[in-house]
Amino acid sequence: MRYIFVTGGVVSSLGKGIVTSSLGAILRGRGYRVSALKIDPYVNLDAGTMRPYEHGEVFVTADGAETDLDIGHYERFLDRDLARMNNVTTGQVYLSVIQKERRGDYLSQTVQVIPHITDEIKERIRSLAHEQAAEIVIVEVGGTVGDIESLPFLEAIRQMRFDEGVENTLYIHLTLVPYLKTSGEFKTKPTQHSVAMLRSVGIQPDLIVLRSERDVPQEVRRKVALFTNVEVDAVFTSYDVGFIYEVPLILEEQGLGKKVETKLGLEPVIPNLGVWRDAVETLRSPEHRVRVAVAGKYVKMPDAYLSLMEALRHGGIKNKADVEIVWVDVEDLATHEDLERAFSGVDAILVPGGFGVRGIEGKVRAAQYAREQGIPYLGICLGMQVAVIEFARNVAGLERANSTEFDPYTPHPVIDLMPEQLEVKELGGTMRLGDWPMRVREGTLLSRVYEGKSLVSERHRHRYEVNPAYVERLEGAGLVISGVTPGLQGRGEGLVEAIELPDHPFFLGVQSHPEFKSRPMRPSPPFVSFIAAALDFQRQRRFLASS
Ligand code: GLN
Q1: Do 274 and 296 share a domain, yes or no?
Q2: Which of 111, 193, 381, 384 has its CB 3.0 to 4.6 Å from that of 353, i.e. a possible disulfide?
Q3: Enzyme catalytic residues
Q4: Distance, CA of 252 to CA of 273 (rounded, Å)
Q5: Which among 254, 278, 302 is the end of a domain?
Q6: Range of the domain at 461
Q7: What is the dihedral of CA 115, 118, 119, 121, to 10 degrees?
Q8: How far is the CA of 386 from the centre of ligand 1 (A)?
């Protein structure tokens, strides 16, 4: 078992998750079973209760954990399902140590940060390696070296070299090298300070990855090597690239994989990175271009929709198309003119998931506009719920129909709390989460999307659902329920999982979040079909315009 530890210096948001994932892809491309673990030094137990505006998207794993968005990067780059245990937070570590203390596991001892907290951290890293049968585990320590809250984690990973042996451990430090345009200089001082700080807690990095706007020249790398005691050929640059899928390629090209092989005593292998090469090639020279409007409320913080953007890109790659996302703030959609302006020239409309009443009427209008104008529509989770609300109000004649999430007194609660949610008092980790199966109705758009499969599984994160009491009336008015939850030991029998409109080129709503399962090598079927529909719509629009 081998462990690679990735720390970050100078500033946050360097893209440590991408570098960690890319290293994973490079090793995975050599045939190793690789897993990755993200350490988040905050006290929350998980990311589920944090604002997407601050922390970006909450990623959901198959086993229903609400995690940091880096877990999504790991899944996409490693092409493997990860789990709750792949994201460790300070909160989790302290909670289990305190529970053990109450149980009497540490009877007669004084429970301390060292060794009890650090042991708990090490235990979590090791048990992940065992349980996921990983040959190499990459551990990314969130935050920046020098943060008070990451100290116990740094101490734990420092000790792991002693426990596991020098030959089985590797420390990689990612830092920022600012480039000053006015003087045309790369500045290494922040890197020197950051490595000095890392050394002050006992960790000497083996490899350094410099984040920079542009490729850092050899003499600057030499300087970094000189001042940090790292070999010159162990200093790499992760410079800005057009597409994140290029990062594994540029790091491999610089010899990162080879260096890791040497340091960890692995057999030299020629890696297979074809997936990344193909993806980048398609992205660089697409045959088509489509414009997809994403109508949501976190549009000023695209990280809040990270997996969604990736899934759209994957759907694009499959269709040899570049997907341009047009961000539409749903709070700006009050009138018909607003809608025309916002959606003029777009080839498809997507309404993503979300919570809370703010912006909800704008989302309903976006769904209505897509339905009436025959524009391809994909509604994800809340995006499906607003499509149902819109249909109920404007087609089925159910005046003021709504979700009880937004209007508890609506005369027509077409979207309502799931029965098992009525008892729920705590908000953390209590939604319907993770993988749930869906039965696909034959002869529907959904069935074509999933290529005739009758049972599929997607990830979920929601509290509300289509109210079963309204299903008959909605169907009577023409809504097609194309996916339902199969009966599971009497629970959740027949919950609506997907809806569509028969007389529309492509109008699909899903209660799940298929974006979480989408990967460059395994694009999500609803996204592939959605982009194909956008291309059809574009062709038709052009044809009409020219005739
Ligand atoms: N707020 C809605 C619910 O809880 C939708 C959730 C979502 O879009 N993820 O059901």
Answers
A1: no
A2: 381
A3: 381, 513, 515
A4: 9
A5: 278
A6: 287-546
A7: 170
A8: 10
